[in-house]
Structures are given as structure tokens and as C-alpha cells.
Amino acid sequence: MTARKFAIGFIVVLLSSASGSVLAQGFGQAPGVVTARASMELLAPSVEVPGTVVSRNDSRLASELAAKLVWIAEVGTEVEEGETIARMEDFTFKIREMEAQALVEREQARVTFLESDLRRLEELSERNLSAKSQYDQTVSDLAIAKSDKRIAEAQLGYAQIAMHVTQIRAPFDGVVTERLRNLGERLNVADEVVRLVDPNRLEVVSRAPLSTVNFIKKGEVLSIGNDYRTGKAPIRTIVPFGNPQSHMFEVRLDADPNVWTVGESVRLTMPTAAAKEVLAVPRDALVLRREGASVFKMTDESTVLQVSVVIGLGAGALIEVFGDLAAGDEVVVRGAEGLSDGMSVAVKDKLLIAVD
């Protein structure tokens, strides 16, 4: 007998969960709903286009000389601007720097000697004890010596630059994302060694139809999102030159590094016509049945009136409707599935929904 009562109770629970609003209405309890107001909004037809999150600083750093690679930072290493991320063997370049330094010192010694000799000849010339030709020759030799010293200093500069570039340094703050060469390999000039990416300067790159180019502008905020998150991003730049084959143009948006990740695929919502003022309701207010679309409008008696509507353009959470509705009418946005015309309801909450 107890088992039979339990079975009957279980069936009642199932029936209650399947048609809670109907049972509640039958027992005198009005079902709870959430509502929002229809309003006049500026909406524009839009199209979703694919985009990719990229870093504005994404570099493949290369060797500037021929040498053997002796050290390279590990993938995932965070570095600051100017920090060494790869190092090449520098023995040969140290020797060349020492040789160039010695040449500079030798030429400096010659210049110093000739300057001293010229001062001596000037003193003798004042007492008519030296030939003018000897004086002129010393002046010429000093000029040549100074020129040779400048050449030696230039050679030293080249040697110091070569020593400097035996280390590859980060041109910006970033993360090592790829090692393109291995330790011990002999590098040539322009061989790529490491990839460095700045995860804090992101942008979305997208190619959009030419039909949208006249309806967006620099600085305008567009909705972006994917299956995991949504957000907004301002347009940083527009390249208004369409590809004649694809009829597409490029648009770039600033992306928040706290939300998005390099390489992430997103979808951009872009307008395809000028915005116009329309009567709009939240998309969740629509009840789609075999006989067509409708919404449930609240009455002054806390009952609902089912109103047939024709759907127009949509933007974000709102959609244009045509029917026996006016701005300010309160419509059910949650809990409408089990409602019928004339049913009493209890409003649990009222939402304020705006176009994205």
C-alpha cells in the first residue's frame, strides 16, 4: 500500500514539473514571469564576420651576423624590453674589438707625437730656426694621422656593434612563444632565431564585406564574441580599399588583453545599413509556434494578452516587431512558454534591456 502511494505521488510530481504553470493556475496560484517594456530604439541590420585576435607586437627575431648559437631563452619566458633572449658565440668578435681598439690607440699616439712636433717647429719658426717646408710637412702628416684615427675609431665602432649584436635583445616586453633554431647551430645573417609576442597589445583583424564600409567609422564600438565570451571593442583603423575579387576590406579593433587571447577566433557584428528608429522588444519575449510569432502583453488586471507580431530586423538582445504593441507596453520575457491568452500571472522581476 505504501509503494502504491509513493508511485502515485511520483506521477503527480512529474505532472507538476511538466505543466507547472497550468497546475498552478488550476489551484489558484498565478505563475511567475519576468517582464520588460517595448521601446523605440535605433536599430540597424547587421552581419557577423569572422575575425582573429592578434598581437600588434609579434616578431620573429633574426641573427644580424654569422656565428654559432650558444644560448636561447625557453618557450614561455617573459622578458622585458632590452633583455637578452638569445646569445651567439662572441670569441672572434672580441678579438676584432681588441684589434680595433689597438689601432685607435696607435693612431692616437701618432697624432699626439705630431702635435708635439708641430708645436716645437712653431717655436723654431718664430726664431727662424726651422725650414718652412718641414713645418708644412708636419702639418700635412698631422692631418693624415687625425684622419687615420677617425678611420680606426669607425672600425672600432663596427667591432663594438658586432659584439653588441651577438646577443639578441627583446625590442618590447613580451613572451617567447617559439624557438626557431637549436643550440649549436651555425647561423647566417637574417636567420630567424626566436619568436616574441606581446600579449598586452592586442587587436582584432577582420575582413568585412564592402557593403558595411559606409556604416562604420574609426572609434565606433562594435560587439565581438565567440562561443566562450562576448564583449565590445572600438575600431582602431579601417582600410577602405576593397579586394576586387573578394569585395572585402580590412578593419582592425583594439582588444582588451584581460579578456582575449592571441590567436582566438571571434565574430564581429557589423551594420549593413543606416540605423532607423523602430519598435523593439527583447528577443526572449518572442513565442514561436506553428501559427506564427507572438508576445504576451501584460494588462492592468495582471493577466496576459497574446499579441501576434511580425518580426523585423534585430540587433543584439532586441528585435523589431510589428503588431498591436506600443512603446511602453510590458511584455513577458521569461516564463511565457506555458502561458495562454487571458491567464493571470505574477510579475517576479522587470528587466531593462538595451541594444548592444
Descriptive notes:
With 356 residues, the protein is α+β, with helices and mostly antiparallel strands. It folds into three domains: 29-44 and 276-351, conserved putative lor/sdh protein from methanococcus maripaludis s2 fold (Beta Barrel), CATH 2.40.420; 46-56 and 201-271, Elongation Factor Tu (Ef-tu), domain 3; 62-196, OB fold (Dihydrolipoamide Acetyltransferase, E2P) (Beta Barrel). 26% of the residues lie in helices and 39% in strands. It contains four helices and 23 strands. It has helices at 2-18, 20-26, 91-126, 132-164, and strands spanning 32-37, 39-43, 46-55, 58-62, 67-72, 78-79, 84-88, 167-169, 174-179, 186-187, 192-197, 202-209, 221-225, 230-239, 248-255, 265-271, 276-282, 287-289, 292-298, 304-315, 318-323, 330-334, 346-351. The protein has a six-stranded antiparallel beta sheet, with no helix packed on it. A six-stranded antiparallel beta barrel has the order 3-12-15-14-13-16. α3 packs antiparallel against α4 (132-164).
